[in-house]
Inverse folding.
């Protein structure tokens, strides 16, 4: 076969027609797939998510159901300024376009304040350290109660007049009172040491020797 015959068959109308037909089939398949995906996913169309923040959970459920959307509570929080069982946050946010049947996840306000374990601060920290840790957790502190003891050392933590222990579950809304030392114990200890040092030197007078006036009375 000559080169001329080879290129003649390669570019023959029969072969070129088959190649063109295959190309049209590929393009048709691509366009059909794209159209099918657009129809299936409703490309360019969606349901705007309504704003349900602050609504009662049951009211939010009814509203989303009207739009063909679902709702699920995946977390709870606490805000004393808002009613119990209301929606605190939502995902996706209001205005986001989603497909029908999409689940909107919400955080629901708890009916009571959360409780946290009291850290190990009693007889284990200073007033300043305990104050900083408790405020960081979210507790509200009342004025401390002072008792005789090491200055600013935490001897007790009370809530509602009851003494607490490390690990007790305490409502974050319950104010706490720290019982700390006033430093009088240290001052009394210093005074006691001073008195003891004075009494512990009975030979101080003897080291001075006899008084000269007493010697003159003894001599004739």
């Amino acid at each position: 076969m000559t080169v001329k015959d080879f290129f003649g068959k390669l570019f023959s109308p029969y072969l070129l027609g088959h190649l063109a037909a295959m190309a049209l089939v590929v393009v048709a398949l691509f366009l059909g797939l794209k159209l099918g995906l657009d129809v299936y996913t409703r490309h360019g169309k969606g349901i705007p998510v309504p704003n349900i923040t602050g609504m009662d959970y049951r009211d939010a459920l009814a509203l989303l159901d009207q739009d063909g959307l679902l709702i699920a509570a995946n977390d709870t929080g606490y805000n004393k300024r808002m009613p119990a069982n209301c929606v605190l946050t939502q995902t996706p946010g209001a205005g986001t376009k989603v497909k029908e049947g999409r689940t909107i996840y919400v955080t629901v306000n708890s009916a009571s304040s959360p409780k946290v374990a009291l850290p190990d601060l009693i007889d284990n920290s200073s007033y300043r350290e305990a104050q900083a840790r408790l405020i960081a957790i979210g507790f509200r502190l009342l004025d401390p109660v002072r008792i005789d003891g090491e200055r600013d050392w935490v001897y007790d933590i009370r809530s509602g007049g009851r003494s607490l222990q490390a690990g007790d579950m305490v409502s974050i809304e319950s104010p706490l009172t720290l019982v700390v030392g006033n430093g009088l114990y240290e001052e009394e200890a210093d005074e006691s040491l001073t008195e003891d040092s004075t009494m512990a030197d009975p030979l101080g007078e003897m080291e001075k020797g006899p008084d000269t006036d007493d010697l003159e009375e003894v001599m004739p």
About this structure: Residues 203-207, 215-220 have pLDDT under 50 and may be disordered. The first helix runs from residue 3 to 10.
